[in-house]
Specification:
Layout: H1 3-20, H2 26-34, H3 38-70, H4 72-92, H5 96-109, H6 113-123, H7 129-154, H8 161-180, H9 201-205, H10 214-227, H11 229-242, H12 246-297, H13 301-306, H14 308-312, H15 317-326, H16 334-362, H17 375-392
Helix pairs in contact: 1-6, 1-7, 1-8, 2-3, 3-4, 3-5, 3-6, 3-11, 3-16, 4-5, 4-8, 7-8, 7-12, 10-15, 10-16, 10-17, 11-12, 11-16, 12-15, 12-17, 16-17
Length: about 400
């Protein structure tokens, strides 16, 4: 593996870690800087998560276009440098507004996966691109698992410690990139900047052009809306319901992410062999409904940890759905389909944190008529039941999905 490829993998991993790094400490951090109850902290946590997702959604295409115009190297290095500085700001933040500004900037700087993927394509031989794209996916998965684990462990040294560690990691990667990263976009290949190409809403408009998979796209969207309950409220839920420490919250999320990676990397093959693509989608939804339903009413922390593998089995749904949809569009529309899927998942990550944290706050605040910390998981269960019913609905002529 070349040093440049290693840098790209580290960049993607650090971007992914930014999602989960602050999850174990966010309840305590928000109350440190803003005060209030855990329910009020959850509401602010939803705002922070959504602002991060919004900026990733809006800025991903823009950074990709900037890299076509000015080159991959400056976009990647500047983004990482700003990310390192942003983590320092968040480590020192003394107000909720500074935390919000930090999440906005963090969402922008973490929206570099398209640029990193383009760089990997630039340095890969045609026959090796698929394999190298798989390395990017593995790096993202590793970051998704390591983020909450590192955040939970370092939280034992204070709520700011994870951010100092992340700043050091991002800064060290800038130094590595400065040394090993060469520019791959030649001057004659640089394209004039066209902001119409950087408009993420254009991909959303294209969803209507795929009538053969429109209903399945909605199923895919509902799955991600429900799945986002974990990063959205797990830390608040674990602390309120079970009295978990940040370290235990990080460990539980790391366990969930690890099992999810095993499911999508290995168990999916067995599921497809046993049940086929359609049966795998149905089975995944049933696993999810069972897990969400039990988590909604559970009172035992150890049992919640035992349920982690069951909840992670729902991870077979996205690849199975993607396989079904890819067979229903033409060969020259595969890229459009992947763009639609990315947009659907991104929109879910924008909307779900607000909905899930509001639900948590509504059922845990002082004076609540019904005390039910697991209410967000019951909402996720209802979304999953709706998605399954939509998937099983017989196709009609106007909806060939």
């Amino acid at each position: 593996m070349s040093p440049a490829a290693l840098f790209i993998m580290l960049t993607v991993m650090i971007d992914a870690m930014g999602i989960g790094l602050m999850v174990p400490v966010i309840p305590d951090l928000i109350r440190d800087v803003h005060g209030g109850t855990l329910a009020e902290a959850a509401l602010w946590g939803g705002v922070l998560a959504t602002s991060y997702a919004v900026m990733q959604f809006l800025c991903g295409p823009a950074l990709g276009s900037l890299s076509d115009r000015f080159g991959r190297r400056p976009v990647l290095l500047v983004s990482l440098a700003v990310m390192a500085a942003d983590y320092v700001v968040m480590a020192l933040a003394g107000s909720i507004w500074l935390l919000l500004a930090g999440r906005v900037i963090g969402g922008i700087t973490a929206a570099t996966q398209a640029t990193a993927t383009a760089y990997m394509a630039d340095i890969s031989a045609p026959g090796a691109r698929t394999r190298n794209f798989g390395l990017i996916g593995a790096s993202f998965g590793a970051g998704f698992v390591l983020g909450p684990l590192v955040g939970g462990v370092l939280a034992e040294y204070g709520t700011r410690a994870p951010f100092w560690a992340a700043a050091g990691l991002a800064g060290g990667n800038v130094v590595l990139g400065w040394v090993v990263l060469r520019e791959t976009v030649r001057p004659e290949h640089r394209r004039a900047l066209d902001w119409r190409r950087a408009n993420p809403l254009g991909v959303v408009r294209n969803l209507a052009r795929l009538p053969g998979v429109r209903r399945l796209l909605l199923v895919y969207f509902l799955y991600h809306m429900a799945f986002a309950v974990y990063p959205s409220v797990w830390s608040y839920f674990g602390q309120e319901r079970f009295g978990w420490t940040p370290a235990l919250i990080g460990l539980s999320l790391g366990l969930f992410g690890g099992v999810m990676a095993l499911v999508q990397g290995g168990a999916i093959r067995l599921a497809l062999l046993w049940w086929g693509e359609r049966g795998t989608v149905v089975a995944g939804h049933l696993f999810a409904v069972a897990a969400y339903g039990v988590l909604g009413v559970i009172a035992s922390g150890p049992l919640a940890l035992v349920l982690t593998p069951l909840a992670a089995l729902a991870g077979v749904i996205p690849p199975a759905l993607q396989g079904i949809m890819s067979q229903r569009v033409a060969a020259d529309a595969q890229g459009e389909l992947q763009g639609a899927l990315t947009s659907a998942a991104a929109l879910a990550m924008i909307l779900s944190p607000l909905a899930m944290t509001w639900t948590f706050a509504a059922f845990t605040h002082r004076g609540s008529a019904v005390y039910l910390p697991g209410a967000p998981f019951l909402v996720a269960m209802c979304l999953t039941i709706g998605a399954l019913a939509l998937f099983l609905r017989p196709a009609v002529r106007t909806d060939a999905a």
